[in-house]
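User: Teach me something about this protein's shape.
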Amino acid sequence: MGVRPLDLLDLDDLLSEQERDTRALARRVADDHVRPDVARWFEAGGAPVRELAIEFGKAGLFGMQLSGYGLGGSTAVSLGLACMELEAADSGVRSLVSVQGSLVMYAIWRYGSEEQKLAWLPELAAGRSIGCFGLAEPDHGSDPTGMSTRAGRDGDDWILDGVKTWIFNAPIADVAIIWAKAEKGVVGFVVPTDVAGFTTRDISDKMSLRASSTGEILLDGVRLPDSARLPGARSLMAPLSCLTEARLSIIWGVLGAARDCLDTALDYAATREQFGRPIAGFQLTQAKLADMTLELQKGFLLALHLGRRRDSMSGPLRPEQISVGKLNNVREALKIARQCRTIMGGNGILASYPVMRHASNLESVLTYEGTSEIHQLSIGQKLTGLNAFAR
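Assistant: First, the predicted structure itself:
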């Protein structure tokens, strides 16, 4: 048997011992708590998220890149490697960690009050509470500047009205980060989901990310005290910075899905015989495997470069830098999944193999937290100095 795809260039030599240990921990968690049942969860259209959250919390996977409040204070690269191992099991499971740690917890950690941080960060880190991040709306996905959700003052309180959709974990969340337009701009709130006027609807007929929970949030006259507002969030740049933080997890995570597909195709090709010999020995198969391995390694080096830059900076990466990573790595991971399916022929669509599940999941990852087109325009704007977004 030959080498594994990421071993071809000895890329492990670029990682510290601590980073390799974090990766090994995440791989054990995925092997013990996800892989044995994920195909069944995908078919059933749901996973035991609360049970998984507790296990992930024990392993310190939530908000591990954040410091203080009992959090891990680890590196962005370590978080990325953990996300790669989790997404090698399933994209929906990795999304749980990204949404909880890099959207919900990061929003509170960066923009919240001390009271909010003390109340929520330890609970979210332990997995005892589940969070969701309410930005996207039915008519405003790629263009959050047009959001319709409104926050108005009523004495010392705020009243929230609106609808959020495609919100990961919404049907089961204990707390929601809700973004709304107010008189002086975009504001964010930490909203307990049991407050009056807050309801959710499960989106159950999806054909992708089925081992996860996704839904709509309906806000009908939700009354909140001013203490629920994120005091450090004063414009749309606040939720966008949270997305920038979370996209780094995606850039790493999709490499796990691609690697799992490639490992599966390699093992399959070594044992599947046609015309009297393993198909791994045919030139066309080897050309596919070589090209996919090349893209996987390039994606890893890109993710590592961005992770190292993030760890050397005091703040998030520039949006166009994140756009390069998400555009390339998600697009190439999806191509790898599709190509691996061709190597496996009809068997590639069976649930007993992970390839078709990964390909289906990656179709969603291609869209959420910025479509390919949005990231192309982000890069194009930086290259030309011209804004091509519709106004």
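Now, about its shape. The two ends are 56 Å apart (CA to CA). The chain has a mean pLDDT of 96. If you'd like, I can walk through any region in more detail.
User: That's plenty for now, thanks!
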